[in-house]
C-alpha cells in the first residue's frame, strides 16, 4: 500500500510520503534524456510515488511538457506541483523574478496548457519577488483557487516573516525549501513557524544535490552540462568538496552498518523529521528512483539519528548552498 502524508492543516493535501523532483530530466544535471524521464515517472507511479514536482523554468518550459506527457490519461493518480516566479525567455535567458498578479495569472494558464491538465494540485511561488508585496502575489494565487485552476498554494524559499504574511491572505499548504543533513538552517526559525501555522514542508535536494548518495567525486562532476561543477554551487568546489566528501564517508559507514545505501539513510533521516515532511529527491534514472523509494522502509532509531547528526554536524559543511543567495528571501 502507498505510504502517504498530509501537507498542511488549513488547506490539507494528501500526497505520497516521498515525491519525485523532475527538474533534472530536462536541465542542470547533465544531458537531458526525455525517454529516461518518461520511464522514471511511469515507474514512480507504479511504486506509489505520485507527488510530482516541476516548474515552468525547468528547461525552460520543457519539463512541464515532459511531465504532462508522462501523466496523460493518469491525471487522477497524481498530485501535481509546479511553480512560477523565476522568469525565463525561450532561449533560457534569466529575466528575473516576478510576483505581479498579472504574471501569476499568465504563468498559471501557460503551465496548465503545457501540462495538459485543468488544475494544478499545489502551485508554488518559486522565489519571492521583493518588489511586490506578498499579499498581492498570494491574493492573485488565491483567485486561481477560486477559479478552480489551482487546489492548494505553496511558497518556495520564503522567510518566516513572509510565510506569516502569506498565510494570513490564504492558507499556505506547503513550503518547498532545501533541507538535508547538509542544509539545516531552516530549523532555527522557518520550521517552527511552519509547525505553528500548520504548514507542511517539502524538502528539495534532500540528498544534498546528490552528494549524500556517495556517488559524487570531482571526476564525476567534470562531465559536460553538470551545473554543480560551476561556482554557483560552492560546496562542490576544490577544498570545500574535499571536506564535504569526508563527511559523506562517515555517512557511508553508518549506512553500511545498517545494510542500506548512503542515499537511503540520508533520505530516511529527512523522513524522520516529522509526518509533515515530504522530501522530493530528483532523479532521471529508474535505478536511483527505486533506491530512493526503498528509503521509506528504513527505520532509524534515536541512536541512528544521533549518529548521523554527529557524522554531519550542522556547522561542518563547507560552502554556501548557492554562490549567489540574493534570490533567497530573508525579509523579517
UniProtKB/TrEMBL annotation:
Listed PANTHER family: AFLATOXIN B1 ALDEHYDE REDUCTASE (PTHR43625), ALDO-KETO REDUCTASE YAKC [NADP(+)] (PTHR43625:SF40)
Stretches assigned to the NADP-dependent oxidoreductase domain: 18-311
Top-level division of the source organism's lineage: Bacteria
Keywords recorded for this protein, A-Z: Oxidoreductase
UniProt-recorded name of the protein: Aldo/keto reductase
GO cellular component: cytoplasm
Record CDD domains: AKR_AKR13A_13D
GO molecular function: oxidoreductase activity
InterPro entries: Aldo-Keto_reductase (IPR050791), NAD(P)_OxRdtase_dom_sf (IPR036812), NADP_OxRdtase_dom (IPR023210)
Amino acid at each position: 500500500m502507498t505510504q502517504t502524508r498530509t501537507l498542511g492543516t488549513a488547506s490539507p493535501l494528501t500526497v505520497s510520503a516521498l515525491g519525485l523532483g523532475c527538474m533534472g530530466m530536462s536541465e542542470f544535471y547533465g544531458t537531458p534524456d526525455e525517454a529516461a524521464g518518461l520511464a522514471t515517472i511511469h515507474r514512480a507511479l507504479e511504486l506509489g510515488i505520485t507527488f510530482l514536482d516541476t516548474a515552468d523554468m525547468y528547461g525552460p518550459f520543457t519539463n512541464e511538457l515532459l511531465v504532462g506527457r508522462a501523466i496523460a490519461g493518469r491525471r487522477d493518480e497524481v498530485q501535481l506541483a509546479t511553480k512560477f516566479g523565476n522568469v525565463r525567455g525561450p532561449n533560457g535567458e534569466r529575466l528575473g523574478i516576478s510576483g505581479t498578479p498579472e504574471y501569476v495569472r499568465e504563468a498559471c494558464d501557460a503551465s496548465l496548457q503545457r501540462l495538459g491538465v485543468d488544475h494544478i494540485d499545489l502551485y508554488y511561488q518559486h522565489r519571492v519577488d521583493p518588489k511586490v508585496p506578498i499579499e498581492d502575489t498570494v491574493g492573485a494565487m488565491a483567485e486561481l483557487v477560486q477559479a478552480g485552476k489551482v487546489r492548494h498554494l505553496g511558497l518556495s524559499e520564503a522567510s518566516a516573516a513572509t510565510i506569516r504574511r502569506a498565510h494570513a491572505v490564504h492558507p499556505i499548504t506547503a513550503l518547498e525549501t532545501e533541507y538535508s543533513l547538509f542544509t539545516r538552517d531552516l530549523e532555527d526559525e522557518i520550521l517552527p513557524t511552519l509547525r505553528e501555522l500548520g504548514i507542511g514542508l517539502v524538502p528539495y535536494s534532500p540528498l544534498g544535490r546528490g552528494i549524500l548518495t556517495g556517488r559524487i567525486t570531482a571526476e564525476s562532476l567534470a562531465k559536460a552540462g553538470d551545473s554543480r561543477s560551476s561556482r554557483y554551487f560552492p560546496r562542490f568546489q576544490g577544498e570545500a568538496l574535499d571536506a564535504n566528501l569526508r563527511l559523506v564517508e562517515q555517512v557511508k559507514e553508518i549506512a553500511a552498518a545498517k545494510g542500506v545505501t548512503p542515499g537511503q539513510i540520508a533520505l530516511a533521516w529527512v523522513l524522520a523529521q516529522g509526518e509533515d515532511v515530504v522530501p522530493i529527491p530528483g532523479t532521471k534514472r529508474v535505478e536511483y528512483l527505486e533506491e530512493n523509494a526503498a528509503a521509506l522502509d528504513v527505520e532509524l532509531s534515536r541512536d541512528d539519528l544521533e549518529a548521523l547528526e554527529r557524522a554531519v554536524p550542522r556547522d561542518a559543511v563547507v560552502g554556501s548552498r548557492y554562490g549567489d543567495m540574493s534570490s533567497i528571501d530573508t525579509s523579517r
